[in-house]
Structure formats: C-alpha cells, structure tokens
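Example record

The entry below shows one chain as it appears in the dataset: sequence first, then structure tokens.
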Amino acid sequence: MNISATIITLNEEANIRDACESLAWADEIIVVDSGSTDKTREIAQACGARVIENDWPGFAAQKQFAAEQSLYDWVFSLDADERVSEQLKTSIAELRRLDEPKLADGYRIPRRSYYQGRWIKGGGWYPDLQLRLFKKSRGRWEPRHIHESVKMDPGARLEKLSGDILHYSVRDSAHHHRMIGERYAPLAAQQMFEEGRRTTNLKIAAAAPAAFVRSYFLKGGFRDGLAGISIASFAAHHAFLKNLMLWEKQKAESSTQKAEGRK
C-alpha cells in the first residue's frame, strides 16, 4: 500500500513545515501551490516534497489536480493547517500491513480542531469525519465551492480510522470573522444559488438564532465553555450572512430578468 500525500497551498510558510513533517511516513508528498509570494515552496522542497505550481481553480479542483499528479493510487489529502496525529499514524501503519483484498476503498478520519486554547468537543466541530485516505481510481473530489469532499464510486467500501487529523485553522476572533465574511459565507451563498436554493425575509431572520441553538445546545457546544459560545455565535453570523448574500444574488437576478424583459 503505497500512499501519496497531497497538500494545496497559498502563502503557507507558517504551516507547511509542520504539515510536511507530519506526513513523513508517506511514500511521497506533493505540494500544489497557487502562486505563493512567501517561502512556502522553498520550505516544502526542503522537507522533501515535490512542488507543483498551478493557477487557482477552486478548492475542490485544486485538490483533484493534486490527486491526479500522484504516483500512487492511494491518496492522503491534508490541508496546510492540519497535522496527522500519532494515533492516526499508527492506524495508517497498521493498514499498510494488510493484504490489498482486506482494504476498503476509502477511509473516513475524525478531525479535531484547536480553538481558543483548547481542543473542541462539541458544536458540530467534532468528530467532523473527513474522507481523506482513498483510492483515486475509485473516487474524486466533488466540484463544490465550499465544504469540498471526495465522492466515491457506487459500491465503494468505506471504513473509519482511529486517530485524529489535528486542525489549527482559526488564529483568533478577528481571523474567524474574516474567514466567514471573505470566504465561507460568499462561497456558501454562491453554492446555494447555483443549486437553485432561495431565501426569504423570514429565513434570513430565523437563520442566526436557529444556527446558535443547533451549535450550542443540540450539538453540545456548551461543553466547550467560552469557546463553545464563540463557535455558536460565529455559526449564527455565518448563517445570517450567507442567507443575506443569497438574497442579494436573488435580487440581482430578478433585476437582470426585468431589464431583459423590457428590451
């Protein structure tokens, strides 16, 4: 079982060394970079990674491109702000001792996030199962603007690995706020719009309180103290903002249709 590990990057010099070092067990490491202006590529090469430059096509498309560059059928995808835990390394090592017929076609892995100085237990942030180890001959990254994931072929067998992917995505509250406003909400609104989903004044008004209740109470965010309150509050902000942005797209579409109808 030879495994190609892949990472996509843009200005990740603060993260790339630790990410690559946590993948030292892989048979190769591929870093696909989309125009970093810092030392990301140099650091990755110093860690033994094969660095490929590719213009940014979107998250899912870039991850699929990285998988297609791999030498081996088995691909392990890691983000630059993630690390492979020791327990997960052990689980993968045990897999590699199995005969091929005993292996599944893909493996889901829990992801644990570090936020406000603690490992998060609830709020929908854990176990946050991610399909990250898979046969590229049986699956591919599904083309989505946000929350990209691997879609396996019909009949593919999936199993779960023990051990976590460790996630260090949010530096502080200001960073969290920017991530929602500049990335997650706009991309979510675009995805919803393209899927034909539409919103209303009532949905916009209800989105934030519903998201807070879901995160803090129903998904156990209360177990994480202030971090749980913060996560639920930002979830509420995200829900409100993506619905508002969707409404703006609806209005723009309606205005365009009316203008065309007057011609």
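Notes for this example: The CA atoms of residues 15 and 42 lie 13 Å apart. Residues 225-261 form the longest helix (37 residues).
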